[in-house]
Amino acid sequence: MIGPRDDVALMAGYHSPQVDVAVRLNTNESPEPPPEAWLAELADLAVTVDWHRYPDRAATELREALAALHAVRADQVFVANGSNEVLQTLLLTYGGAGRTAAVWEPTYALHGHIARVTGTRVVEGERGPDFAVDLDEVRRVFAEAAPSVAFLCSPNNPTGVVDDETTVRAVLELAEAGDALLVVDEAYGQFAPWSALDLVQDGRPLVVVRTFSKTWAMAAARLGYCVGPAEVVAELDKVVLPYHLDAFKQAAGVSALRFRPEMERRVASLVEERGRLVTRLAELAVDVWPSGANFVLFRPRAQRGGEVWQALLDRSVLVRNCSSWPRLDGCLRVTIGTPDEDDAFLDALEEILR
Known about the structure:
Number of strands: 13
CATH architecture of the largest domain: 3-Layer(aba) Sandwich
Distance between the termini: 55 Å
Oligomer: single chain
Strand content: 15-25%
Helix content: 25-40%
CATH superfamily of the largest domain: Type I PLP-dependent aspartate aminotransferase-like (Major domain)
Strand order of the largest sheet: 2-8-7-6-5-3-4
Shape: globular
CATH class of the largest domain: Alpha Beta
């Protein structure tokens, strides 16, 4: 039997442990389900779908609703099965053999992983000591590697760092000068104080990626999108598989957007809870990094991160072990949960560290 491509055979793949625990705080999901009114509306929508017909290939209604949400045009919106399919389509379109994608570590692992799957060469720069973007390092990577696609993640996963507008504008200028596409991944954008969406316009090589998984509490739906220049979106539509977004998912997305106030209240509540959790962590023997997302990165000072991760799991609390990620030896990442879930995590962690 023929084997996979040589480069695919060498890949480790992307994995996040899924185990049965009482408190699951490892994948940055919303700790609360969507509004009950949305669930009821979704049940009604299910019977209105023409299940024997293919879905609207252009996802017209969903694109128009997202365009209204962000005050852009519908031809500047691309929708897909989760933000990861958005990233894949971007790399199939603007990456590939003979092209390079740039990332600055530590950052979201799938930027580099999906690039490699699409046959795109990956060049890795480094973030600064505080995990913020180092513009000198960005300039070095652009000068030496001439990437076709450059990725920023803000708030950055797994560190939680938010790139300020001055930084994003500076990287965008480098992308424009180097004939590259800048992709700003804002999967956690609603938790941050500003958004690069305000910088998107036709003729400017900037795409901002968003998802319904986190703030819209729809991780199970796998629905994501990006906002970018119309000319970029038109190219993405050429590459993505036909009828890739099913009719029920499109209807679910349109319906969810009618519950924006509930989403914003959920975000505000999580931001407040994040502050409480960070305050408690600061009282323990761990180093904590500031976060603009719905998770917090921390490192135990006197114990190995992997041992603390296992001890938490033994107490039925699951967080993300980031020790294998670049420059994150001993680091763990905890998702902001409900107050009860966070208290269970904090009590367990305090016991372990003691």
